[in-house]
Design goal:
193 residues, mainly alpha, elongated
Length: 193
């Protein structure tokens, strides 16, 4: 069984690789982002200060479906929500693996809290995607907004704990990316609600 430190190193290496890939994708695609994606992201960023325009453009531009459907706000909102679901599910799986390897009962309980938060967010986001597909945008906006807090709920479980330096440091980048993706999904969906 892998130790917590080995899992931490493995996760950090994977996070660094993912960041490098995202950076390369941003650099390579930002220049060639379809005008529809740029316009949609500009609108989302103007409606919601939590939406990072450059991150929105790079995320959507990295998705072949978004590039193909760049002029379709409905398709872009669905794509952003789908990417957020994928990230939430990956984060949930990460916490599950960390929880299995964790020796401290207190840390395991906190990891369980994070696992539940991301599991619930994944479920709510799937419902939001169904509502986007059905063009029930107002309900989808409410659901995405509700799911947005998963990262904060997870981080709150660790406040004031001696283990705070271990696991949350591993999860912080994943939490931050989840929040950024969820803000994009919310901003795009609110733009068509």
């Amino acid at each position: 069984m892998a130790t917590h430190q080995e899992l931490n190193r493995t996760f950090m290496a994977a996070a660094a690789t993912a960041a490098l890939v995202l950076l390369l994708a941003t650099t390579a695609r930002a220049e060639s982002a379809p005008a529809g994606i740029e316009e949609a992201c500009r609108g989302a960023a103007s409606r919601d200060s939590a939406v990072d325009y450059a991150h929105c453009v790079s995320s959507l531009s990295s998705d072949p479906h978004s590039r193909r459907d760049a002029a379709d706000m409905h398709a872009l909102a669905a794509a952003a929500t789908r990417m957020t679901i994928e990230h939430a599910a990956a984060t949930e799986a990460r916490f599950d693996g960390l929880g299995e390897a964790e020796e401290s009962p207190r840390a395991r309980a906190r990891l369980g809290h994070c696992l539940e938060a991301y599991g619930a967010a994944t479920d709510v986001l799937r419902d939001a995607l169904d509502n986007i597909r059905a063009r029930v945008y107002g309900r989808a906006v409410e659901q995405i907004a509700a799911a947005l807090g998963a990262a904060e709920r997870c981080e709150d479980a660790w406040k004031g704990e001696e283990e705070q330096q271990k696991v949350p440091a591993v999860a912080t980048a994943h939490d931050r990316e989840y929040g950024r993706l969820a803000a994009v999904a919310l901003g795009l969906t609110a733009g068509i609600a």
